[in-house]
TrEMBL record, chain A:
It is found in: Cytoplasm. It comes from Cellulomonas phragmiteti. This is Phosphoenolpyruvate-protein phosphotransferase. Its cofactor is Mg(2+). Residues 14-134 form the Phosphotransferase system enzyme I N-terminal domain. Its EC number is 2.7.3.9. PANTHER family: PHOSPHOENOLPYRUVATE-PROTEIN PHOSPHOTRANSFERASE.
Automatic annotation (TrEMBL), chain B:
General (non sugar-specific) component of the phosphoenolpyruvate-dependent sugar phosphotransferase system (sugar PTS). This major carbohydrate active-transport system catalyzes the phosphorylation of incoming sugar substrates concomitantly with their translocation across the cell membrane. The phosphoryl group from phosphoenolpyruvate (PEP) is transferred to the phosphoryl carrier protein HPr by enzyme I. Phospho-HPr then transfers it to the PTS EIIA domain. Pfam families: PTS-HPr. It is found in: Cytoplasm. This is Phosphocarrier protein HPr. The keyword Cytoplasm applies. The lineage of its organism: Bacteria, Bacillati, Actinomycetota, Actinomycetes, Micrococcales. It comes from the Bacteria. Residues 1-89 form the HPr domain. Keywords: Cytoplasm, Phosphotransferase system.
């Protein structure tokens, strides 16, 4: 790039996800090339003739296909298949010949490529469902070929040659999937929210992540930045003192991770520390630092499918996860589809307000066979492994729904049945819900979304979505109180269980287990071990007594042990 | 013109991996082949974009057509491919294999 080097700007502020901090060079994810359809192709400064354009465009298709094939060969699983299919699109003879025919007739290259891609995209969109989703892949082929033909840098996720901080305006799930994780130090985005998919995936992988950082995409490739997820900051050109401080923090974090004893307060009040997983592969990565799995998101097996997986396929996947857990506790959540996780075969495409529509357990109204097949598969996995998973349903709103789910699950052969508390109605009537089931688990992300009437995917409303909002804390407290009264377990499996300060509040409220991304557990374990149960209750009372979210957090923090604040950079 | 009619056996229909394997086989044969849904216009069977945009679901019939001395042999091979569940190959089980 030839633009003038700006003076070192100050600290860029965003919203941090997790507690980690790292220093590394920026690798920019480039946006699609924005060119007018009649942009001329220049060769040695002169507009090229049709023959030259033909040659350049044909070579662009060939090079893009080759690069995608190479990326695919280096990938595994779903990512490999997606990249291989995208490579084949770039190689497609019909796409290429139609573009070249237009170029030969004198059309400018960008316009020719756009017209043919648009025709295929239209056919895909008309077919709907699975094919409509593939339009993204088709457009990424378009962006790559246009960039290659016009001599611009490749758009999308760059090939990382050294450990880097990936910086993007926003990351689509496909972009995240294409990342070479062995070289990703951190993820920073200009858009997105702290509970969006990029943030959750970063947490799952134990990567520092900061979202909603205005101006971060102005940084040049290779600029060294210090990323602090705990503070939500990105500092360009850190000096040696900052680098040293980050290195010390990294060492302290690594030391915390060595402690794998069961979670408990300093006076021995046990709090189970569990991991959130989506696949059997995730279960294998859960180390000794977790006492089990507190949330197994089964929808991963269903996403991107044209038809529901069979009972055999599901039973195999569940058995693999149970075996990987090696006798530790596993809490399985039944299919949580709908809203931001649509399924081709189950969700209603015309819902105007899908977060409030037929999602989660509510799918039983239209597709009871999905739940019955899943329960049958879980029981088969149980028989095959000798493990006895706890099973819970998402998006329960009423005691009758809880009862109906419990009856189905117990009839299928599930021993321990629970439900998620994500809907304010369920939190307010938690005692009635708990009368029907053996345990509940609070999903704080959705509970905050529904309590504050704030879409989880609207990053600009992140302040409203804050789990420190006193109204959200009130509902968690009401649920925990019902758990104490009925002597039944109340877990938390939202991202707030990953925050060591919030974990102290939750334990003070009476929550009996915390489930989070495995990378978050060492800091939570450390915080719990340095406070008594009574101190946790005082911290919880202080938070509940506050008027606003920032005041609640500050009131809780003021009561935290000074050493813990320093070690965890709270 | 030689024609064959076959029911698509892949559970996901002629999408994704099955579409990829099928169009690769057509291209490798070196013979121009067309594919059509019943009552639909035939399209170039070596183009993954055209084949995917047909949107053929599991269990539906398609008609393959080709010309020339190789047509019979190539179409027989392609029919056999479509009559197989191409989504049931080992690498389709990546989620469970833990890769």
């Amino acid at each position: 790039m030839t633009t003038a080097q700006p003076g070192p700007p100050g600290v860029l502020q965003g919203v941090g996800v997790g507690r980690l901090a790292v220093v590394g060079p920026v690798a920019c994810v480039r946006p699609a090339p924005a060119l007018p359809p009649d942009a001329p192709l220049l060769v040695d400064g002169e507009p090229a003739g049709p023959e030259q354009v033909h040659e350049v465009v044909e070579r662009a298709f060939t090079e893009v296909a080759a690069a995608l094939r190479e990326q695919s060969a280096g990938a595994t699983g779903t990512v490999r298949d997606v990249l291989a299919a995208t490579a084949q699109m770039a190689d497609d003879a019909a796409l290429r010949s139609q573009v070249l025919a237009r170029v030969d007739a004198g059309e400018p290259p960008v316009g020719a490529i756009d017209a043919v891609v648009q025709m295929f995209a239209g056919m895909f969109e008309q077919a709907g469902g699975y094919l409509a989703e593939r339009v993204t892949d088709l457009r990424s082929v378009r962006d790559r070929v246009v960039a290659r033909a016009m001599g611009l840098p490749d758009p999308g996720v760059p090939h990382l040659e050294r450990p880097s901080v990936v910086v993007a305006r926003d990351l689509a799930p496909a972009d995240t999937a294409a990342l070479d994780l062995t070289h990703v130090l951190a993820i920073v985005t200009e858009l997105g929210g702290p509970t969006g998919h990029t943030a959750i995936i970063a947490g799952q992988l134990g990567l520092p992540c900061v979202v909603r950082v205005a101006g971060v995409t102005d940084l040049e490739d290779g600029t060294v930045v210090a990323v602090d997820a705990a503070a939500g900051t990105v500092l360009p050109h850190p000096d040696d003192a900052v680098r040293d401080a980050y290195e010390r923090r990294r060492t302290a974090q690594a030391a915390l991770a060595e402690d794998t004893s069961p979670g408990a307060t300093s006076d021995g009040h046990a709090v189970a520390l569990l991991a959130n997983i989506g696949t059997a592969a995730d279960a294998e990565r859960v180390g000794a630092g977790a006492e089990g799995v507190g949330l197994f998101r089964t929808e991963v097996l269903f996403l991107e499918r044209v038809q529901a997986p069979t009972v055999e396929e599901q039973a195999d996947a569940y058995a693999a996860a149970l075996r990987a857990a090696g006798g530790r506790k596993v809490v399985v959540r039944t299919l949580d589809a709908g809203a931001d996780k649509p399924l081709a075969f189950a969700t209603f495409p015309d819902e105007e307000n899908p977060a409030l529509g037929v999602r989660g357990y509510r799918l039983v109204r239209s597709h009871p066979e999905l739940l019955d097949t899943q329960l049958a598969a879980l029981v088969r996995a149980q028989a095959a492994t000798g493990a006895t998973p706890w099973v819970m349903a998402p998006m329960i709103a009423t005691p009758d729904e809880a009862r109906a789910f419990a009856q189905r699950a117990r009839a299928a052969g599930v021993a321990t049945v629970g439900v998620m508390v994500e809907v304010p109605a369920a939190a307010l009537r938690a005692a009635d819900i708990l009368a029907e089931v053996d345990f509940v688990s609070i999903g704080t992300n959705d509970l905050a979304q529904y309590t504050m009437a704030t879409d989880r995917l609207r990053g600009e409303l992140a302040d409203l979505l804050d789990v420190w909002q006193p109204a959200v804390l009130d509902l968690v407290a009401a649920t925990a109180r019902a758990g104490r009264a009925t002597r039944k377990p109340v877990g938390v499996c939202g991202e707030s269980a990953a925050d060591p300060l919030m974990a102290l509040v939750l334990v003070g409220l009476g929550v009996t287990s915390l489930s989070a991304a495995p990378g978050a557990l060492p800091a939570v374990r450390h915080a719990l071990r340095r406070h008594t149960q009574q101190r946790c209750e005082e911290i919880a009372d202080a938070a509940l007594g506050a008027r606003t979210a920032p005041e609640a957090r500050a009131a809780a923090l003021a009561l935290v042990d000074a050493d813990v604040r320093a070690t965890l950079a709270l | 013109m030689t024609e064959r009619t076959v029911v698509v056996a892949s559970r996901v229909g002629l999408h994704a991996r099955p579409a990829m394997l099928f169009t690769q086989a057509v291209a490798a044969s070196g013979v121009p082949v067309t594919i059509a849904r019943s009552g639909g216009a035939p399209v170039d069977a070596s183009s993954i974009l055209f084949v995917m945009s047909l949107g053929v679901p599991h269990g539906e019939e398609v008609t393959l057509a080709a010309d020339g001395p190789q047509a019979d042999r190539v179409l027989d091979e392609l029919v056999e491919l479509l009559a197989t569940d191409l989504d049931a190959e080992p690498s389709g089980d990546a989620t469970q294999a833990g890769s």
